[in-house]
Amino acid sequence: MEGKKERIVVSGMRPTGKLHLGHYFGVIKNWLNLQEEGGKRFIFVADWHALTTSYTNTEKLKENIENLMLDWLACGLDPDKNTLFIQSLVKEHAELYLLFGMITPKSWLELNPTYKDLKYNLLKLHELKETFRQKVERLIPLILEGLEVKIEDKEGFEEVLKEQLAEALIQALFEGKIEGDLLKRLNIDKKLLYQIDTYGFLGYPVLQAADILVYKGNTVPVGEDQLPHIELTREIARRFNRLYGETFPEPQPLLTETPKVVGTDGRKMSKSYNNAIYLSDSAEEVEQKVRRMVTDPQRVRKTDPGRPEVCPVFTLHKLFTDPQEVRMIEEDCREARIGCVQCKKILAANINAFLEPIRERRNYYQSNKGELWDIFREGSKRAREVASQTLQEVREKMNLPQ
Ligand code: TRP
Ligand code: SF4
């Protein structure tokens, strides 16, 4: 051994619905690459995290968990090479979460950009903020006039004022200080606003820190949006180590260049845009979705030369078609030698060829659900063995009785 630390990978996913190609190339593919390397991997269904935002409707939770398990095994995640498990079956996550709650300053959570972002996204507040910004704009000359001071970078200062006034209004909204028909007029879901104004939602990243550190994870493959959570995990680890002695590593995010997968309409593939191709789609569904895809809008007739660089069909070809054929399609499109109908047929066939082994494995586990659950129950047991050792150490260091 050259003294290098063993790589311990921890990653989770919320069970919120079936996976699409965007998830595959964004997350799953990284996991598949990692499983061929050394070290340990803990990969889990983050069902408690799903509850932080969706605790009011849990009817579909179990179904969503099972679907995620199916999707993972269908993709080829190997239960012998990874510890695959369900978060809520490993109660040690909750115990460590509670103890971390004791040492985490409230402000770290309130200032967490992901917290704000998620809140903004869920409530579609970005638009509202823009409206607020426009509304307060008119007030700014009045404020500056009232101040009777000379301001150096007037434009910059005006921008700061505008931003902060708009923010203050948003904050007032969260604190329930804005009443009347404004919320209704702005189409803001008041129920959701109060629904996520909980202790659990604020504590989301503390739970995530516990998820990672309970296995002393040092590597966390995540998307860019998760970086603030990893940073917070590092801060919690540092604070714990300082208070009670060296215990936890400071985990590093593992970002991989993930191509943004475009959906059938050319925007980023996403369930909410209704433009996704799911890993569980049938061959016919894939063909139909691809047939209806947006192409180069300027190419009306087959004799018009096309522009592959603006065509989402071409963007997907780059993921599913071999490079030599991609080059041919590119040329043929530019010179109007290939029609969009045919081009799409090739793409659909290639996506289906890619999905076929995934479908096969999915079918297998669909008809062997006992085996599916055994894999995740067994994995949860194995995870628990590791997690309980960490907690033993933590309790000792914090002088809790054993
Ligand atoms: N917050 C992550 C997401 O929304 C899911 C998650 C929960 C996670 N716990 C984790 C990811 C621990 C990595 C490590 O995608
Ligand atoms: Fe897009 Fe293919 Fe049509 Fe060219 S031929 S515009 S790449 S669908």
Features:
402 residues; mainly alpha; Rossmann fold; Tyrosyl-Transfer RNA Synthetase; 3-stranded parallel β-sheet; two-stranded parallel sheet; 19 helices; 5 strands; binds tryptophan; binds iron/sulfur cluster
* SSE order: EHEHHEHHHHHHHHHHEHEHHHHH
CATH fourth-tier homologous superfamily of the largest domain = HUPs
Structural class: mainly alpha
Q: How many domains in all?
A: 3
Through-space gap between termini: 34 Å
Second rung of CATH, namely the architecture of the largest domain: 3-Layer(aba) Sandwich
Describe the structure.
There is one protein chain. With 402 residues, the chain is mostly helical. The chain has 3 domains: 8-107 and 199-261 and 369-397, HUPs (Rossmann fold, 3-Layer(aba) Sandwich); 124-187, no CATH class; 281-367, Orthogonal Bundle (Tyrosyl-Transfer RNA Synthetase), CATH 1.10.240.10. It has helices at 21-34, 47-54, 61-75, 92-103, 106-110, 113-122, 125-137, 140-147, 154-174, 182-185, 190-195, 199-202, 204-213, 227-244, 283-291, 312-320, 323-334, 340-366, 369-397, and strands spanning 8-13, 40-45, 83-86, 219-221, 252-254. Helix 14 (227-244) links the parallel strand 4 and strand 5. The two termini are 34 Å apart. The mean pLDDT is 90. Bound molecules: tryptophan and iron/sulfur cluster. Tryptophan is lined by residues 10-14, 46, 49, 208, 211-212, 220, 222, 226.
